[in-house]
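Listing S7. Sequence submitted for prediction.
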Amino acid sequence: MSEVTINGLIEGGKATGGPPFGPALGPLGVNVTNIINEINEKTKAFEGIKIPVKVVVNPADKSFRVEIGAPPTSALVMKEIGIAAGAKTKDEVAGNITIEQIKKIAQAKEASLYGPIKSKVKQIIGTCKSMNVTVEGMNAKEAMKKVESGELKV
């Protein structure tokens, strides 16, 4: 029998033996508790954020691997600055984020962002722009120019 893949979306650090994983893993004869513990260990840094998780099981030898997807950049920005949503109008400012917080998000998203750290920071600033989140107290477009010119160090 070939590998079986189970996908689910769980809140970081809060997987349980219930759906989506428990009922799907039980019939495969694997240790569900070990898998749930590994999921929670790998996702605990994303507490409060829904994370895509993939569990791949080899039913023949009961081996498994847990793969964690990356949460949306907007979810990480909101968590970092403590807001529930981006701005509702283009005139409203949803919040402010620092370059240090952006670098922290860039590290969390390392696998899904491309290029050197400066490029990753600019990609996150682009998300801040769409959410109307200011960067170091300035609008995102202005922050982007200052990162590009080196005036804002990354």
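Caption to Listing S7: primary sequence and predicted structure tokens for the chain studied. The chain has a mean pLDDT of 91. The first helix runs from residue 22 to 25.
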